[in-house]
Amino acid sequence: MASSLRHFAGLGCFPAAAFSSGSTCFLRRDIPNFCAFVALRPIRPPAAATAPAKPPASPSPPMEEHRQAVPIPCHSGDSPPALSAAAVPKTPLRLGIVGFGNFGQFIAGGVQRQGHAVLAASRSDYSDYCARHDIRFFRSVDALCEEQPDVLLICSSILSTEGVVRAIPFHKLRPDTIVADVLSVKEFPRNLLLEVLPPGFGIICTHPMFGPESGKHGWGKLPFVFDKVRVTEDGVQVAKCDQFLSIFEQEGCRMVEMSCTEHDRYAAGSQFITHTIGRVLSQLNLKSTPINTKGYETLLQLTKNTVSDSFDLYHGLFMYNINATEQLDNLEMAFEKVRQMLSGRLHDFIRKQIVERAAPVPTDPSGKLANGLSSSPAARLL
Amino acid sequence: MASSLRHFAGLGCFPAAAFSSGSTCFLRRDIPNFCAFVALRPIRPPAAATAPAKPPASPSPPMEEHRQAVPIPCHSGDSPPALSAAAVPKTPLRLGIVGFGNFGQFIAGGVQRQGHAVLAASRSDYSDYCARHDIRFFRSVDALCEEQPDVLLICSSILSTEGVVRAIPFHKLRPDTIVADVLSVKEFPRNLLLEVLPPGFGIICTHPMFGPESGKHGWGKLPFVFDKVRVTEDGVQVAKCDQFLSIFEQEGCRMVEMSCTEHDRYAAGSQFITHTIGRVLSQLNLKSTPINTKGYETLLQLTKNTVSDSFDLYHGLFMYNINATEQLDNLEMAFEKVRQMLSGRLHDFIRKQIVERAAPVPTDPSGKLANGLSSSPAARLL
């Protein structure tokens, strides 16, 4: 069972293995190491922010550049600095959402409640929905980018994000545009954006840890994780960054500033484990019984919630989080440990029988041993 | 992993395997098949209820008697008959509790609230507790039985119950005494009591599916499972049976009449699975994180509740429920299935790369394929 995946060790984020295995060098052509713990390109000084935007970056640089890359300075996450409301300009943001499915529409609601303008682009036609919600809809990302929004928010799925980002015509955007994502994994989009975006662009990686279901009654106290991966400290970019984050702060979210690396480590041990338990239980096809315990009912609800998400999301949590394979292995070892604890007791049970058969333990008429315990096998398990 | 326990298949209730395996025939001496789906002794006609009580039955009958035994008629559990309140006499019951730990004390509270007298016996000394709660305490089961209570309620642990029951001096009790249990498994005590009790004694197997924690604010709507295994329809035994069950009905429990066999089948697929998930997660030593999802918090709570019970209880749910091993195997197969679904996607990922390396797919300058998808590997997973 273990071996079925062990030879994929490290493939929790597949591209990482693509670089670590000489036998898969052909993958280097078009799979950069998006889950590596280093940036794919050193951060440029603020001055670079004024340089004209360049066309999309060429495919990933060779291995050597990865090895020489400079680590991204990450926030500790222990004491998130308060957002400076004073720094937030009064001009509403023009926020472009790329990928306008359920989640993009859900986020757009909060953006509009905070008085900002929403522009949306998607492969599917949401023109009717947008017309009803005072949102400008574009059938192509190119058309949306020609409007030069202040912030471009990528709301595509984990599996489609790389293709979506690589197809963005950055040269049509202002050179200090902020690009943000909302994926449930964070190192992958951080490294993807650092590689593909022109150097002057701002990068904010976020994970709103709620959705249309858990956030349908408001976003109050729901966790919003963010990492200001690359924001120039002078100019308007930092102000727009705070203005963007204030949307979620004003909606009442619990703002958690945390590095993408920390997020993925925590998420693999919590969110991925939770989804895995739900997926495993869904395979058992559990039913409600006339004698449900409260604990069993929480498992039934967990299973229902898990399968209401797509398997693509679960697979994304696994393949695009470098810590997921280790957590899956830990879960398997924990299950095996419990089986061993149960079988160990059975072995004790049998050994006691064999020994006592060879030398029967004297009992009194009431069936009690000298030690006061019953001579019965079950009682001897005490 | 599977093989570590597979050779124990059928040992979910160990004694059952003891009979099914020729290599363990020595176990037949003192391990009756308490989990078999048949009774160890045919039900006696009501007339037998008037016969004088006999001393404890001798050790389990030979295999042949098991094969010839008559099945216990079980209630369907679909439509539990309402308890006839009219049949309940006004005289309070005198209820003797054998095993007066936390659960015995918890049950005694409800018995007293319904106006019945409680007598208690336990290996540990609870004389002070009983003095404070108007309960007569006895240091031995013999002394308790000399008081001839109407109902003897066994509140010992699963693992100690056989020894406790075999040590009861039935000849000191009235010949129509009702003996009941409260174990979380039901076929085992049903068959144990049918084998060990004198024929005139009544047998009611119950499972209050709550305890001091879940029932601390009252027993309203909490499930109480019961099976009137052997109750003579005439005489006072049936009235005392209804009077005993009315304690839980009057406390507001959801009364679920169900055969012991049905209970164990349902419980293995719900309560045992729940305890197993809790035990497995406890091995992972899960911690709260700054980014807990609601689903993860339910798992943290489930783990906390599970480990608050003893491992002896969990082991009892496994070893004394003939359906538990099958459920453990199902859980293992479900886990393996999920791993296979994840690894299968990774295999697809690699195969696509190999094929496209041999015959590169043409792309336009924007990086889009003829089908409109990005040429990137991640996008090709769509």
Automatic annotation (TrEMBL), chains A, B:
GO molecular function annotation: arogenate dehydrogenase (NADP+) activity; NAD+ binding; prephenate dehydrogenase (NAD+) activity; prephenate dehydrogenase (NADP+) activity
Matches recorded under InterPro entries: NAD(P)-bd_dom_sf, PDH_N, Prephen_DH, TYRAAT1/2, TYRAAT2_C
Keyword tags: Oxidoreductase
PROSITE patterns the UniProt entry points to: PDH_ADH
GO biological process: tyrosine biosynthetic process
Signal peptide: none
Gene3D superfamilies given in the database record: NAD(P)-binding Rossmann-like Domain (3.40.50.720)
Highest taxon above the source species: Eukaryota
Pro residues: bias regions: 53-62
Record-annotated Prephenate/arogenate dehydrogenase domain positions: 93-372
Bias (Polar residues) ranges: 372-382
Annotated stretches, region: Disordered: 48-74, 361-382
Transmembrane annotation, as ranges: none
Keyword Nucleus: no
PANTHER family: AROGENATE DEHYDROGENASE-RELATED, OS06G0542200 PROTEIN
The protein's name in its UniProt record: Prephenate/arogenate dehydrogenase domain-containing protein
Organism: Miscanthus lutarioriparius
Taxonomic placement: Eukaryota, Viridiplantae, Streptophyta, Embryophyta, Tracheophyta
